[in-house]
Amino acid sequence: MAIRDIRIVGDPVLRTVCDAITEIDDGVKTLVNDLLETVDDDGRAGLAANQIGVSLRAFSWNIEGEIGYILNPRIVEISSDEYQDGDEGCLSVPGLWFPTERAWYARAEGIDLDGRPVVVEGEELMARCIQHECDHLDGMLYIDRLDRANRKKAMRAIRAM
User: Fold this and answer.
1) Secondary structure class of 119 (helix, strand, coil)
2) Which of 38, 77, 122, 127 has CA atoms 20 to 30 A from the CA of 84?
3) What does the record give as the reaction this protein catalyses (predicted)?
4) For residue range 65-124, what is the model confidence (pLDDT) as tens digits?
5) Which are the catalytic amino acids?
6) Residue 1 forms part of a structural domain
7) Residue 5 lies in a domain
8) DSSP state of 49
9) pLDDT tens track for 19-43
């Protein structure tokens, strides 16, 4: 296991749609261990595989003392009538926080290292995490979801980094 370096905005791996995991081998097991160890730090809520340079569909989370992972996640349900509009940040866009609208509730399905089905769901912060990390796996950053004025501020701040 290793704490891995976080890829920062501008790295092409963050804009790459991640590949599905088709075989659970030693490389995938090492990836999961690295995701779990890297997310286990104060201030870290979630971490997608491409944020540590691996273009595979996997993410880990660290929400309210619960640390976990999911392979090949796909969002199967979000609340369509309740939204949250709190500030969101990202390890790959360090130091920047902007109001980002997300569904209040989200549910994702995937598998674990044994190939068994996994369901990850929650409201508020967990819902935000699920949506944020699945966006990463689709090559998106939270700044892509900002309204025009905040996106302009974010891009100006990123250029100044």
Assistant:
1) strand
2) 38
3) N-terminal N-formyl-L-methionyl-[peptide] + H2O = N-terminal L-methionyl-[peptide] + formate
4) 899 999 999 999 999 899 999 999 999 999 999 999 999 999 999 999 999 999 999 999
5) 133
6) no
7) no
8) G
9) 999 999 999 999 999 999 999 988 8
